[in-house]
């Protein structure tokens, strides 16, 4: 960590094929461009709870053949309300994350 710019990636809604491959591609490209990448577990639920892992090339190696999403995915009723959205924004601000890549629906 340090002074590098940061983005986050997460999955939302039901699992779909290609989610891990997309997480891997986003992470590898961002690192190649000099960014730090945070992976939020369980979609918006994890974003609200600030439940993340800093991703690197090792953490996304070997995930493209696995089904589902290694970050897990969950629907979040809390995020549907204004207060939950504010909590999610605070989580991004707290971690100095400038961009969020959401993979999936819901």
TrEMBL record:
Q: In which pathway does it act?
A: Carbohydrate degradation; glycolysis; D-glyceraldehyde 3-phosphate and glycerone phosphate from D-glucose: step 3/4
- Cross-referenced SUPFAM superfamilies: Phosphofructokinase
Q: What is its EC number?
A: 2.7.1.11
Q: The Phosphofructokinase domain covers which part of the protein? A: 6-106
Localization (cell): Cytoplasm
Question: What would be an example GO MF term here?
Answer: metal ion binding
Its protein name is: 6-phosphofructokinase
> What organism, scientifically named, is this protein from?
marine sediment metagenome
């Amino acid at each position: 960590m340090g002074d590098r710019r940061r983005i986050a990636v997460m999955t939302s809604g039901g699992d779909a094929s290609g989610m891990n491959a997309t997480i891997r591609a986003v992470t590898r490209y961002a690192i190649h461009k000099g960014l730090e990448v945070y992976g939020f577990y369980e979609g918006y639920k994890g974003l609200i709870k600030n439940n993340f892992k800093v991703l690197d090339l090792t953490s996304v190696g070997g995930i493209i053949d696995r089904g589902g999403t290694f970050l897990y995915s969950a629907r979040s009723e809390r995020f549907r309300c204004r207060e939950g959205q504010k909590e999610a924004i605070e989580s991004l601000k707290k971690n100095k994350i400038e961009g969020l890549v959401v993979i999936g629906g819901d």
